[in-house]
Amino acid sequence: MAPSMSDDRKIPRLDEVADRAGVSAATVSRFFNNPKMVAAATAERIREAVEATGYVPNLLAGGLASSRSRLVAALVPDIAQSIFNATVEAMVNELSVDGHIVMLGLTGIDNARMPDLISAALARRADAIIVTGLVNDPALRDLMRSRNVTVIETWGLPDDPIDVAVGFSHRAVGQDIARFLRGRGYRRPHLLTATGTRAMERRQGFVDDWTTAGGETPTEMTFESQTRFGHGRAAFRAIRELPTRPDVIVCSSDWLAQGVLVEAMAAGVRVPDELAVVGFGNLALAAEMRPTLTTVDIDGARIGREAVDVLRRRAAGKEIPDRHIDVGFRLIARESA
Amino acid sequence: MAPSMSDDRKIPRLDEVADRAGVSAATVSRFFNNPKMVAAATAERIREAVEATGYVPNLLAGGLASSRSRLVAALVPDIAQSIFNATVEAMVNELSVDGHIVMLGLTGIDNARMPDLISAALARRADAIIVTGLVNDPALRDLMRSRNVTVIETWGLPDDPIDVAVGFSHRAVGQDIARFLRGRGYRRPHLLTATGTRAMERRQGFVDDWTTAGGETPTEMTFESQTRFGHGRAAFRAIRELPTRPDVIVCSSDWLAQGVLVEAMAAGVRVPDELAVVGFGNLALAAEMRPTLTTVDIDGARIGREAVDVLRRRAAGKEIPDRHIDVGFRLIARESA
DNA sequence: CAGATCATTGCAAGCGCTTGCAATGGCTTT
DNA sequence: AAAGCCATTGCAAGCGCTTGCAATGATCTG
Question: How far is B147 from chain A, CA to nearest CA, in Å?
Fold first, then answer.
C-alpha cells in the first residue's frame, strides 16, 4: 500500500548469499559470471541461497569492478513512426539474450542531441554505441575512438567509419530506381526528397544514373523537415501546376509516396497509367493500400542483428575483417509503378 | 584507423582533473553533482581541467557510491508500429533533460520477457521502472515494491497499482463508443477485438453499455495475435458471410479498422452508409486515408510526460497524493462512422 | 572587537562487486 | 608411492566516485 519509496527494507548483497551458501563471495560471483568454474553441488547451494534471499546482483558495482557495463547505447533520430524501429527492435531482442540492456537515445531528426547522448553513453561506460544518425563532428568521432567502446554506424556505409558500419549504399538505391524506371519506359521523373544526407545520396545516385543514360535532368522538390503524408499531398498538388507534367514521382519515403497516392486517387488520376509513384522504406502500409506501392525494402531487422553479431565477435576476441557490412536492399515492384 | 577496441589510451579519472585544477576530488565531484556548492572561480578552473583532459565522469562508480543510477527502465511490448511509441518518445526526451537515460525493454506482445527485464532493471538499480504491459505475477509485484524504485504503470488504471498508474479507463472508452454509435442511430455493431486484457476491457465496456441501453448483444470476433491490416481484411470478408449483417464494425485498433476499410472499398461497399467503421488509437493514417477514420485518440506523449512528472515529484521529495492519474481520451468522429 | 554564521573545501571511509594469485585436495601417471 | 595436474575455492586488493564530518577563513552581528 505504501509508496515503494518509503519502505527501505534491506537489499540483500552478494556476501549474504555467500554466507548462506557457506562459500566465499568470490564463488558466488563466479556462479553468476562464470558458472562453469563452480562445482555442481556448490552451484546448487548457491542457487538455493539466491532464491531464499531474493538476491539480485548489483551490476553497477559489478560493472565498476569488471569495467564491463553490459550496456549498449542505441542512438536513433526518433521512434515515432521511424523506419529504424525494426533495427532497434531486433537489436534489443538480440542483446537481451546476452544479458545486455540497451539505452535508447533519441538524437532528434537534426541529430542535435547526439553529443549529449554520446557523453551519456560513455559516462555509463557503454560496451558499444550503435548509431543510425550521422556523427559528423570530428571531435566526437575522436572521443569515441579514444574510448574502449565498439561503435557501429548503421543504415549507411560511410567511406571511413568510426569503427564498423552496417548498412547499404544509398547511392546504389538511387541508381537502381533510375534503372528500373528506365526499363519500364518512364521518361519524366520528378523527385521528392527530404534534405537528410542519405536521402540526398539516393537522389544523387538517381540523377547521376538517369542523366548518364541520356535522360533529361529530372525536375524536383525538396523538403526541410521530416516527410509525412501532408507533404506528399501538397507536393502532388504543386506538381499538377508544373509546365511539363512528370510521368513518375520518386519519393524519398513511403509516407511521402502514400500522400501522393491518396491525393492522386482523390483527384481521379490513374496510377500508374497517368502517374506512377515510387517510395522508399517498404512500410507495412506499402503492400496494403490500393494501389500497392512500388518501393525499396531494407531489412532493418537484419541490420540490427548484424550489428549485434559484430558485438559478439568483438566480445569473443575476434577481429572484424571488413569494417563495411553491406546488407543490401530490394526494389519491390508493385502496382504503383 | 585501428579498431577502437585495441587502443587503450588511459581514460582520465576524477582525481586527475582534481590535480590539474588544484582541488580535491570531492570538489570536482561537487562541481558535477551540486554545482552551487563550489565557488565560481574554482568552478572555472575545474571546467578548464575537464576540458583539457576530456574527462567524462564514470557513472557506474558514481551510481555505486550514491546509489542513484539515473537510469529509468521503459518496458513496452514492442516498438515495431506500436501505439506506445509516442509515450516512450516523450519519456526519453523528458528524462534526458534531467540527465537520466532510459533502458528500453521489449517484453513481447505476451509480456513473456517481463520478469527478465524487471530483473535487469533492478540489477542496474534503476531509479524507476515504467511499464505499459501488465505485470500480473504477484511475486514480481512484491519484488518491485520491496525495492527502492518508483514503478509507474501506464496506459491503464489498475485498481491497485504497484505504485503509481498513469492512463485512462479502457472501460469508459468502450462505453463512449457505444453511446456515440447509438446516438448516430446504428443498430447492429460487430466487434473485432484482440485478446489483450485492455482491448477486452474496452469490449466489455461497450457490451455492457450497449445491452444496458436495450441494444441486442453485438456479434463479434476475437484475434489471438497482434492485430494488423491482414486481420481486418480477413474479418471483413468473414463478416460478409454473417446471417445478419452489421451496420458498424468496432475495431480494437486502427490497423484492424484500416484493413476493414481497404477491403470494403475494394468490394465497393460504401462507408459509412452501408457499413461504418470505428478504430482505436488515432494513428497517423487515421486522418489521412480516405475515408478518414472515426477513432479514439489517446495522448500517448502526455502519458509519457505525466510519468516523468511523477518521477520529478518523487525526486523532489513530494508525496504523490493520487496514485491514479487519468489522462482521458477523445473520441474523434470522422467520415467512417 | 569577540563571537557567531556561512560559504568552501578537504579527509577518508565506504558503495558491492570482480579477479589475479595462491592454496587445497583428489586423481593420474609412471 | 612420489610427482604432477587439474578442478575448485578463498584472499584481498582494488574499480572510481560520493558524502558526512570537520576544518578553514571570511563576513556578520551587536
Answer: 7
How is residue B281 annotated by DSSP? B
Under 8 Å between Cβ of B63 and A58: no
Q: Is A155 helix (H, G, I), strand (E, B) or coil?
A: coil
Cis bond upstream, residue A138 (ω within 30):
no
- For cell 480477413, name the residue: B234
Strand-pair category, A101-106 with B101-106: antiparallel
Q: What is the pLDDT of residues A137-178, one digit of tens each?
A: 999 999 999 998 999 999 999 999 999 999 999 999 999 999
- Note down pLDDT in tens along chain A; length 337 residues: 333 333 445 899 999 999 999 999 999 999 999 999 999 999 999 999 999 999 999 999 999 999 999 999 999 999 988 899 999 999 999 999 999 999 999 999 889 999 999 999 999 999 999 999 889 999 999 999 999 899 999 999 999 999 999 999 999 999 999 999 999 999 999 999 998 899 999 999 999 999 999 999 999 999 887 778 888 888 999 999 888 899 999 999 999 999 999 999 889 999 899 999 999 999 988 998 889 999 999 999 999 999 999 999 999 888 899 999 999 999 999 999 9
Of B261, B255, B278, which Cα lies nearest the Cα of B183? B278
Between CA A214 and CA A210 the distance in angstroms is: 7
| Preferred mutation among A69, A71, A79, A325 to probe B, highest tally of B CBs within 10 A | A79
Residues of B whose CB is below 8 A from A57 = 123
B83/B253 Cα distance (integer angstroms): 9
Closest of B156, B158, B337 to residue B251, by C-alpha: B337
Residues of B with CB below 8 A from A101's CB? 103, 105, 120-121, 124
Residues with CB under 7 A from strand C: A 11, 13-15, 25-26, 29-30, 32-34, 55, 57-58, 61-62, 64-66, 68; B 22-27, 30, 36-42, 61, 64-65, 67
Alpha carbon distances (Å) from B24 to B41, B103, B157: 15, 33, 50
Put simply, the chain B residues between 212 and 271 with a CB less than 8 A from any chain A CB are 228-230, 258-259, 262, 265-266
Dump pLDDT digits (tens) for B197-242: 999 999 999 999 999 999 999 999 998 877 788 888 889 999 998 8
Min Cα separation A327/chain B (Å) = 20
Determine the Cα angle at B278 with ends B273 and B284, to 5°: 115
Nearest to A64 among B64, B117, B121 (CB): B64
Q: Judge if the beta carbon of B81 is closer than 7 A to nucleic acid strand D.
A: no
3-state secondary structure of A132: coil
The residues of chain B scoring below 70 in pLDDT are: 1-9
Whole-number Å distance between alpha carbons of A193 and B135: 44
The rounded Cα A235 to chain-centroid distance in angstroms is 28
Tell me the residue type at B231: H
* CB A36 under 7 Å to nucleic chain D: yes
Sign of the torsion angle spanned by Cα atoms A61, A67, A68, A72? positive
d(CA B55, CA B13): 7
Task: Say whether residue B290 is in contact with chain A using an 8 A CB cutoff.
Answer: yes
Interface of A with B in 174-213 (CB under 8 A): none
CA angle at A286 for the pair A134 and A78, rounded to the nearest 5°: 30
B241 burial (CB, 10 Å; 0-12 / 13-18 / 19+) is exposed
